[in-house]
# Entry
Amino acid sequence: MRNPVRTEAEAFSFVIAVVALFAAVALVGIFVNGWAALVAFVVLAPVVGYRYFSSDPKVVEPAVWDRSRDADGRHRILVVANETVAGRSLRDEVVRRAVERDAQVLVVTPALNTRIRHWTSDEDTARGAAQARLDESLAALSRDGIDAQGTVGDDDPCQAIEDALRMFAADEIVVSTHPAGRSNWLEHGVVERAKERFDLPITHVVVDLEREAGARRTA
Amino acid sequence: MSAHAEAHGAHPPVANRSSRVDSRLLGIYFFIASEVMLFGSFFSAYFFARVAVPHDEWPPKPYELPVYLALLNTIILVSSSFTMHWALQSIKRNNRSGLIAGLAITFGLGLTFLLIQAREYTRIGFSPHDLAFGTTFFGLTGLHGCHVFLGLTLLGIALVRSLRGHYGPAGHDHLGVEIPGIYWHFVDVMWIVVYTTVYVL
# Structure
């Protein structure tokens, strides 16, 4: 959804939308009467509002409040994964990217929860499980010599990314999921939503835990 | 109670990160929300005076509103949004002269708007004391004029800074232009609503 106070360009687009709306309302008021203009406003305002807020800006700019982050020049990778966080293929991908560019890594594991537990703020179990998986993953990355930190995030992966970006000015995002057909995140279009919402390179890594476990047994 | 306290040790539990809204984002939202409520209260008074108080026609005789002069002011203010946008696009492309020209023209247009409004006030033929109509008219347009004045102050600071060589194409180097720009567009939007409801309808 577009935010008219996100950037000056967004605010300018909003001005254009408002000019169009009120020009139409004013014309109805001039040629018919004030009550017809009110009806025109009630009909047109939701239409114009919907078109504005649901459209995508041609150029996505970083929001005003995201611009003044201090940067130490190091590349920063934000990794978002939950059950797949300890997967071998994800770890290999993160290590490869981190070594290539001497990057700092922040791993976020959303605390997946049931809807009823979420609404009743019963999050301790979900956060505990996410923390355990995160600890395992951070230990593995540390053994590979990667400068990685981690945190448990919101149960909505996109919200977890947004929260993390406020603390960690990432240069790229890696989202890890199960393969299609077994991934709840893919079913809910998490990767597509993240690409629409964040103006950063996003890499999708598929982790097949069953195949990795099978490979380990064979070995 | 004691078990809960022991579980968390000597410090409070870690806050859910989703509750940590960025303070600058929150500031912008609160500011815009308060401004919308402020204008909303003035619009409520205006519509109450217009609808609840019986009048044969609006504005009540013998008063008349200078619709065409206000239309000229509307064109001036909408144009200033374009020049403001041009100024910011210029500095993003490292075009300093475009930034200075855009800000100077925007400032000039805003100042012209205020001078025309001041001229309108002196010749309009009624005052804030004349009926609820006069009170709400001067209240709404005056409130907007105050916002234009504040916007001009911000633009003036940005213009002086740009003349002194400040600002640059990098995102965090032109925040001092971008934030007044957002405010200026907000002022423009409010005028479009004021003009349509007060002068045209």
Remarks:
- The longest helix of chain B spans residues 131-163.
- The CA atoms of residues 49 and 182 of chain B lie 32 Å apart.
- Helices of chain B lie at 2-8, 23-51, 67-92, 96-123, 131-163, 175-200.
- Chain B touches chain A through 33 residues (CB under 8 Å).
